[in-house]
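Chapter summary example: a protein plus uridine-5'-diphosphate.
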Amino acid sequence: MVANNRKRVLITGGAGFLGSHLCDKLVKGGNEVLCVDNYFTGTKQNVSHLLGNPFFEILRHDITFPLYVEVDEIYNLACPASPIHYQHDPVQTTKTSVHGAINMLGLSKRIKARILQASTSEVYGDPSVHPQTESYWGNVNPVGIRACYDEGKRCAETLFFDYYRQHRLPIKVLRIFNTYGPRMHPNDGRVVSNFIVQALRNDAITIFGDGSQTRSFCYVSDLIDAMTGFMETPLEFTGPLNAGNPVEFTILELAETIITLTGSRSRITNKPLPHDDPKQRCPNISLAERELGWKPKVGLEEGLKKTIDYFDKNL
Ligand code: NAD
Ligand code: UDP
């Protein structure tokens, strides 16, 4: 820690969608941020507005290789998050999740830094418990096309808790549910960005399956508040902790809302449902409400309007 309580914070995956918003918040809060990224899905443009700031530094690095730096806190976000991207090179996805976690936990152990893992609702797989509570162990196909990500993230959680039990590391495991907002990659295939881009171009809106599957969509600023709030909690509170918006929508409802908000002439078209696509997903966030005093503030329409505005200016 430096003299004036300015924390030195490492953010892996800091040039990605969530990471760049986290960089913004922590720099603005008076911290010194080291953003580490291999630019697999993130871009320098996401953080270009921070580059002249003396308290912001960026390093091209792949976390599957060891990293030697000195910081007070680590947020481990590096990992492609969209199915198209994480299935593009599934072996690398598992390596990033598992070797990356080992490297970052090793770093945390050496320098005694708090470490937060960006885990995911995908650890619940296609859930048979609804809404999902942290005590549910999940229903994941270990050999399917989503397994590189789901099982990679599950193994990372195992590593975090083993380092906690074995070495008393100060860990925080956050299970993030579908989050959206400005700086999502326009071609990453995630549903919110896909539908907005299609609607703005008046292209067909591609619903996979019949659109009855559900998701709960959290606006990025809410999610980042949960992440930083969790990092500040007492050491013994490790999680796993759900963070997401508990209001559930079908994918068809999402498509219709985006068509209305954009005033688009797009029509809906149905495409085959990908393998192992979860039928429903919705977080139970009572634990975050109780331990962090946190709940999402931004409703779907408000968040979609901000996201549409971003894509409108940046496509
Ligand atoms: P993203 O793809 O925009 O960001 C991931 C970042 O990690 C990118 O900048 C990418 O270049 C970088 N990266 C990937 N592999 C790397 C490696 N080996 N070394 C260094 N950098 C690497 O995705 P996001 O939505 O910002 O997700 C961030 C994290 O949050 C991920 O770990 C993801 O699993 C988790 N998460 C996100 C969501 C969501 O809805 N956005 C939901 C659940 C979990
Ligand atoms: N989806 C869709 N059309 C698209 C992209 C996604 O209908 O163009 C569906 C997808 O099948 C899934 C849901 O939207 O049921 C959310 O997909 P996303 O890839 O955003 O996230 P995840 O499946 O990981 O929750």
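Key point: DSSP finds nine helices and 13 strands in the chain.
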